[in-house]
Amino acid sequence: xxxxxxxxxxxxxxxxxxxxxxxxxxxxxxxxxxxxxxxxxxxxxxxxxxxxxxxxxxxxxxxxxxxxxxxxxxxxxxxxxxxxxxxxxxxxxxxxxxxxxxxxxxxxxxxxxxxxxxxxxxxxxxxxxxxxxxxxxxxxxxxxxxxxxxxxxxxxxxxxxxxxxxxxxxxxxx
Length: 174
Hints:
Helices cover 62% and strands 7% of the residues. The chain is mainly alpha-helical. It has a 3-stranded antiparallel sheet with strand order 1-3-2. The radius of gyration is 20 Å and the shape is globular. The N and C termini lie far apart (47 Å).
């Protein structure tokens, strides 16, 4: 058993897992993962800003991907452009992001992390531990394996959202 597996109660995954064993392992792992993610310390410079996990997701786009149009942020976050626009306005008022007009298409707004070095470092520090953990796990995988991991997590999220109750009832009656 590797150091990373010690104390986690995870089965030896090298030989594969039956579905029930995989489900059990994930049911034990996910609450710990969420708990650890929630305990990520917000840097002192950002604490007074009342930032939430949704801000973390939004900020990761321009931090890791560079200047990002509001429409692209909405697509990546899977929310309405008006929702992103409101979030960006809030973050802009607080000095965390800057919004500018796209010089090529003046109808588009581009979002960047603030040029203020202290703010930029604080945002980077807030996202860094999670990004480091993902890099540690994903760097050793092939591109296809990384795609599978992302697909499984997206599938899990979609399954938790589930169909509306009426569809569930119709399917059970059918």
